[in-house]
Structures are given as C-alpha cells and as structure tokens.
Design goal:
The chain has 150 residues and is α+β, with helices and mostly antiparallel strands. The chain has four helices and seven strands. It has a five-stranded mixed β-sheet. The relative contact order is 0.18.
Length: 150
C-alpha cells in the first residue's frame, strides 16, 4: 500500500476491506485499456469508506480516496464487493439489480472489473480503444467463435 501524499485526504477507514484488496491483487493490465496512460477508479463501500484504485504504467495501487476527481466511480455495499471478489460474474448480476453502480467513465469502470476478475483464459473480456478520423471508439471483446460487431 502506498503512502498517502499531502494532497490526498483519506475519507473513511484507512485499511480497505479484504474484498477490494483481493481485486487489486489479481489486476491484469492486459485486460484494461487506459487511453490516457493513467486513471483513478474510486471504489466506494457504502457506509464504510472510499478508496482509489490508481492505474498507471500498467500497475495498480489502492489508496484512500483523495480529493482528486476520479475517472470512474464504482459503488456497492460490503456484501456485494465480497461477492464480486469471489466471482466477478456476480458483478453483472449486482449491476442489473442496482446493487453495484458504475458512474462516469463506463469503459474504465467495467474495464476495472474485467481486469480484476482473475479470469486468465483467452475468452476473458478485454477492453481496447480504436482511434478513427473523428473520434476514439471504445471496444470490448471476449468469448470464442466468429466475431460479432454490435
């Protein structure tokens, strides 16, 4: 765990819950696309606190939430985070049931969940982006078989 610098003001407990630590420990930088090279994903455990997963140069660090604006915000209660740490597929169920909220940058928020899923086979979700003449397009790929574009 990194030392909190003077510009960061912790909000909530200083030690993150075991579920968040488990997610960070299995971070796979090859799964997530961070177009700017770094990102701050705020992880809120309702009624317990907030922590920032800071992604930079292919690494991740979990820190107490700072005053800096996060790029993405994921929020759930402790039981939901524990379920996601046990089986990330439970995150999609929690999202559909409004127990997990993803706000601001959906590409980074869902990419964070995929990158911390612990799923290592080639069928896992992978996020990238493609630059076009007009804009950057976020892409998601996963599964097996013939490609399908939606």
């Amino acid at each position: 765990m990194a030392v909190v610098d003077a510009e960061e003001r912790p909000r909530g407990k200083s030690r993150p819950p075991a579920a968040l630590i488990a997610l960070i420990e299995r971070f796979d930088p090859d799964v997530i696309d961070v177009p700017s090279g770094s990102a701050r994903v705020r992880l809120t455990v309702v009624n317990e606190g907030e922590w920032d997963a800071v992604i930079s140069a292919g690494a991740i660090d979990l820190k107490p939430a700072s005053r800096s604006q996060p790029d993405a915000l994921l929020s759930a209660d402790a039981a939901t985070w524990e379920g996601i740490a046990r089986d990330v597929r439970g995150g999609m169920v929690a999202f559909r049931e409004s127990r997990l909220r993803v706000r601001q940058n959906l590409h980074l928020g869902v990419g964070f969940l995929a990158a911390t899923s612990g799923i290592a086979d080639e069928r896992r979700l992978r996020f990238t982006s493609v630059d076009t003449r007009l804009c950057r397009i976020s892409t998601l790929s996963g599964g097996e078989g013939n490609p399908v574009i939606c």
